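The instructor's notes for this session suggest beginning with a concrete chain rather than abstract definitions. Hand out the sequence below and ask the class to guess, before any prediction is shown, which regions might be ordered.
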Amino acid sequence: MEMSKAQGKRTLMEEEEEDDEDTVGLGFGEDEKRKKAVTLTGKKGSGGGGGSAPPCCQVDNCTVDMSDAKRYHKRHRVCELHAKAPVILIAGIQQRFCQQCSRFHELSEFDDTKRSCRRRLAGHNERRRKSSSESHGEGSS
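After discussion, reveal the predicted structure:
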């Protein structure tokens, strides 16, 4: 008895729905059916393709082989050289990789040679000031 994947899933879905009919009064509704349907497919989120294409740096004309790169660099599609470079070209625009956002921004969004954009640095500094004022403020009256 051979079944295609779709038929097998359909059969499992039908069995799950039959099981759910027994638990109508227990607070299991349509939402629960949807959750089960999602888990039956065996997929988690929108993880993209099956990884058929090897990871490559998104910087123009970069030909670095990233098959041996660290997971961080593969995930963000940037080679180590360009992640640390002060200026790179993407689509003809001078940009820099932001360590906080893990994205490329135009140079105007950075202060001098910093590797984090102003917006993220402002949030970081605000959190630092808040925590330092709380620890210093409690001791003095």
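Then share the key points. The longest strand covers residues 93-98. The beta strands are 88-90, 93-98, 103-106.
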